[in-house]
From TrEMBL:
The chain crosses the membrane at residues 12-36. This is Prepilin-type N-terminal cleavage/methylation domain-containing protein. It comes from Lamprobacter modestohalophilus. Keywords: Membrane, Transmembrane, Transmembrane helix.
Length: 277
């Protein structure tokens, strides 16, 4: 009985080359995907870092600007400090403390100055005048002291910007509404509705609490929202103000990574303007 010899055939050179080529293509594709993934992750980290830094700077501005015009923590017993408010006025010698927006350097409306009572005394000190501005070197600066709010050039300023971040834009827009204080203190027709919250304060109506009338809130279109001062006579007014802040930034090491943040700031202390008989 004869046994046939066993024949084993290996891969040919061409098959080996094809296998190596396919493997190389798969490896190259996987490596490309890995590189793109790492690059996207790196971009996300850079953007998150920039966003974090800009948000921190914006939060500092928002928290401090809200305090503009603060004069006393006990207004009930300190009416003489509120009217007039020395932190919302023009002081003797032009050392104004009123809030204001200026253009600084090459920018436009990129500086905001204000003041508030820091030590609860009756005088305005230099270290109670504050502000924020964009310097020409791309840094956000905060004023720690100043002699006046007439410009953005005076005082002591320090940077708030991290070395890796460049501020490419900063702008402030101030909006104001006048609230008629007098209208919310009188009831001319005696119907139980304050004049500024009444449908017709010269003619009694029954009931006065129809729709938005008589609800104790200054609704759009009511007299309490209108404060015309034309000297015949002038009512007492509250100037209700807010500031819109927009900040733009980018990374100095990678200018393609940019971010823009904005926020509306309601100034908590309204400016009181007394009535003129």
């Amino acid at each position: 009985m004869s046994i046939s010899p066993r024949v084993e055939n290996g891969a040919t050179l061409i098959e080996l080359l094809i296998g190596m080529t396919v493997g190389l293509l798969v490896t190259t594709g996987a490596l490309g995907i890995l590189i793109l993934s790492l690059q996207a992750q790196n971009d996300n980290i850079k953007l998150a870092r920039l966003n974090q830094d800009l948000r921190a700077m914006l939060d500092i501005m928002v928290r401090d600007i809200r305090r503009a015009g603060f004069v006393t923590n006990d207004p009930e017993n300190n009416h003489d400090l509120i009217d007039p408010n020395s932190f919302f006025s023009t002081m003797p010698g032009g050392a104004t403390t009123e809030i204001a927006i200026y253009s600084y350097g090459a920018g436009n409306a990129n500086c905001f100055v204000y003041a508030y009572n820091r030590n609860l005394n009756d005088t305005v000190d230099s270290n109670e005048r504050y502000g924020f501005r964009l310097a020409n070197n791309g840094e956000l600066e905060m004023r720690r002291s100043g002699d006046t709010n007439e410009n953005c050039s005076n005082g002591s300023w320090e940077t708030l910007t991290e070395p890796e971040v460049e501020i490419t834009g900063l702008s402030f827009v101030l909006s104001s509404n006048s609230l008629n204080v007098t209208s919310m203190m009188t009831d001319t027709d005696g119907d139980g509705c304050l004049d500024g919250d009444d449908q017709n304060p010269n003619v009694a109506s029954n009931p006065c609490d129809t729709g938005n009338y008589g609800n104790g809130v200054c609704n759009s279109g009511e007299a309490c929202n209108t404060c015309t001062r034309d000297g015949s006579p002038d009512p007492a007014c509250l100037s209700v103000r807010s500031v819109n802040i927009v900040i733009n930034g980018r990374l100095r090491g990678d200018e393609s990574v940019t971010q823009t943040l904005s926020e509306q700031v309601r100034i908590r202390n309204d400016r009181f303007i007394p009535a003129v008989p």
